[in-house]
């Protein structure tokens, strides 16, 4: 464990967020309490085959700029599965999408299908091609992917927050213009920015900050050749920026509200993975998670957004910008970073779809079982688990260094 300076110790004592999370309906303390109750169950859930096996295209052509950088570091590589390892019952349910193997010519970009209700570009589950990934064998942590290539990705993502007139990217000729440094505190006057635009920015900032927490919490120490927590990394990237911590909590509040809205749907979903005992465990674990989450006060009021005729145009812009963010993930040069970027943008996009594309009754007892794809549900829970672990890590960093101070 790396040590830190006295000034950082003072920071740990002072920055304990309390009170209302901006633009949400709940307080920091509510999220901390809920997470204490459900983090263990979430971790248990994503270990099951149904939630740890994912099928995706790691080498889809970047639609925004040519000559994309590829990370050659060992830690950037994703360990793919032998198809024989995947239970037969899951093979027809896994998200299946076109795959171009590394080292071979990339196929021309082909527009993916999405409906007007989708906030992200979803992959075709009926495709016969794809690569299977065991998410447990490919943890999200420090890979060494940094510098200009990584900054370029975040610049492109934050540019989508500008809400200038846009068109959805549909071919490889389009390009995202450069921005200023990505992970910086904005100087926006929030009272002059509409709620919808603030929500979009908080989602992007919270995702960025959460990923940074994971990188710092599982940081490779070249001196000891061990994976360990790096407080200086956490302090510089996230800890000393109150807004970044708040936006992690804000994302958690959004995801929690989405799960609660669709709780009946989730409890009735078919999680058949080929092992009746495991299937029962999944049902019981999800029931426990939802029982605890629903007992908390409301965390977000989606009805406060896009609630009049004028804001319907903004809603379409919001969708298109978020779809572009999901496509930017195909430009990430690190395989492992791209894997988790695609999963988490899909997870957040699924939460937005649940909150803003369907009324509550759509997730009732008679809901269409195919309302959401399996890949969306798997991405949603894995994303929720990632933010759950971020909040647990923040608490652990604080406790650890408070005790050492």
From TrEMBL:
Keyword Disulfide bond among record annotations: yes
One GO term of the biological process aspect: protein folding in endoplasmic reticulum
Disulfide bonds: 71-76, 112-120, 334-337
Coiled coil, from the record: none
Chain positions recorded as FAD binding sites: 141, 143, 154, 205, 208, 237
Source organism, top-level taxon: Eukaryota
Protein name as annotated: Endoplasmic reticulum oxidoreductin 1
Gene source species: Basidiobolus meristosporus CBS 931.73
Lineage: Eukaryota, Fungi, Fungi incertae sedis, Zoopagomycota, Entomophthoromycotina
């Amino acid at each position: 464990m790396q040590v830190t300076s006295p000034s950082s110790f003072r920071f740990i004592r002072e920055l304990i967020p309390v009170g209302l999370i901006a633009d949400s309906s709940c307080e920091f303390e509510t999220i901390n309490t809920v997470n204490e109750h459900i983090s263990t169950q979430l971790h248990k859930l994503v270990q099951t085959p149904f939630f740890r096996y994912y099928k995706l295209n790691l080498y889809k052509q970047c639609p925004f700029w040519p000559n994309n950088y590829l990370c050659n570091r060992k830690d950037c590589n994703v360990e793919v599965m032998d198809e024989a390892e995947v239970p037969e019952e899951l093979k027809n349910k896994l998200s299946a999408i076109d795959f171009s193997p590394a080292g071979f010519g990339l196929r021309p970009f082909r527009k993916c299908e999405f409906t007007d209700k989708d906030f992200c570009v979803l992959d075709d589950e009926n495709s016969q091609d794809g690569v299977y990934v065991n998410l447990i064998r490919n943890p999200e942590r420090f890979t060494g992917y940094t510098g200009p290539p990584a900054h370029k990705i975040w610049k492109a993502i934050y540019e989508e927050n500008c809400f200038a007139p846009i068109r959805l990217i549909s071919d490889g000729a389009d390009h995202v213009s450069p921005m200023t440094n990505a992970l910086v505190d904005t100087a926006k006057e929030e009272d002059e920015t509409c709620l919808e635009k603030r929500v979009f920015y908080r989602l992007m900032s919270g995702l960025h900050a959460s990923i940074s927490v994971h990188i710092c919490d599982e940081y490779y120490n070249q001196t000891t050749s061990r994976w360990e927590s790096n407080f200086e990394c956490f302090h510089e990237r996230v800890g000393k920026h109150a807004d970044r911590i708040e936006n992690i909590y804000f994302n958690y509040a959004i995801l929690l509200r989405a799960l609660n809205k669709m709780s009946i749907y989730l409890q009735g979903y078919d999680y058949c993975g080929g092992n009746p005992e495991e299937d029962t465990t999944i049902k019981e674990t999800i029931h426990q998670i939802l029982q605890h989450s629903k007992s908390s006060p409301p965390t977000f009021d989606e009805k406060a957004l896009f609630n009049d005729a004028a804001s319907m145009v903004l809603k379409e812009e919001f969708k298109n910008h978020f779809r572009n963010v999901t496509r930017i993930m195909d430009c990430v040069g690190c395989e492992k970073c791209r894997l988790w970027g695609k999963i988490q943008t899909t997870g957040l996009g699924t939460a937005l779809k649940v909150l803003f594309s369907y009324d509550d009754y759509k997730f009732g007892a008679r809901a269409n079982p195919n309302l959401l794809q399996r890949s969306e549900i798997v991405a949603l829970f894995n994303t929720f688990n990632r933010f759950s672990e971020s909040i647990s890590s923040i608490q652990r960093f604080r406790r650890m260094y408070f005790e050492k101070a």
